[in-house]
Structures are given as structure tokens and as C-alpha cells.
Amino acid sequence: MRVMDHEFYTDNDERVRRWEALRLMATDGSLLNLHHTKELNECYGGTSNQHGNRTVQARCSVLYDVPNNMVVDAVLAPFRQGERTLALSHLLHCAQGDLVIYDRGYPGFPLMQALQQRGVGFVMLCKHSFNKNVPAFTRSAEISSTLRMAPGHNTPII
After folding, report:
1. 98 and 72 in contact (C-beta within 8 Å)?
2. What is the pLDDT of residues 59-79, one digit of tens each?
3. Is 119 left (phi over 0), alpha (psi -120 to 50) or beta?
4. Which domains are assigned to the chain?
5. How many CB atoms are located within 10 Å of the residue 129 CB?
6. Is-contact 89 27, C-beta < 8 A?
């Protein structure tokens, strides 16, 4: 399922709000508990707890235009698809001149590479364990830093 509205940007130039001349976007995902039916379980999958109770779940992901309070793209997908995979699908709706914000579940070189290839700016919160640069930065007195990082030899490249 996809939801998008490009007419807003092409037909309302004077009303489109931007941040520092950029379209400020945010991406986030969540799990949705669905009604337990055979059809939904086959389509979306789900999880079982330690007692064997099955929960049918779907994963959703949204690309949101923050200043304009508007969903640009939304995806409802099987549980087994990860947030990063769904975030990659949102890139079809991003362009050079966009800035996308991600929470700490998103950092990974394939997504970063795809964003850079499209010329899309991004900010990602990183877990302390993301790489050795993160703890070094948090120990420093710096309030900002730019790092050039390269993927390890086992990292898949798009």
C-alpha cells in the first residue's frame, strides 16, 4: 500500500513550508497488531511468544514532511521486512534538496550510500555501539563533528 501526494509541491509553491530552504522529512516505522485470521497471517506473518500464542503483525513505515504536517509516502509490509528496507523504498519520494531525519534504528551503510547517491541530506541518531567514532565523540568536548566513514569489508554495498 502506498500513499503519496506530489501535487502539493507542484501546485502550492507559495504555501509549501521549508526549513532552511530544505524539505524537512522524517522517517519512522512501527509494528501493527492485526486481527488474527489465516489470510492476514499468510500475508503479513507475525510473532509467537514463549507460550506459543501467535500475534499477526505488519510493519508500517512513513515518510513525513514535518513542517507541512503531511505524509509523503506510507508502506504497509510483511512483518519480516525491516525498517531500513522500507526506508529505502521511501527514497523514490525524496530528491536532492531534502533533509531526512532517522532515529537510532536506521544507521547502516547501504541506506547512507543510497541517500548520498540521490543527493539527499540526512541526520541519523546512532547507537553508542554503531562504530568506534561514536563513543570517541561522546567523550570529547565537541558539540558537532563531521566524519568520513567507509563500510567494512563485510558490509553489503548497493
Report:
1. no
2. 999 999 999 999 999 999 999
3. left
4. 7-139 (3.30.420)
5. 8
6. no
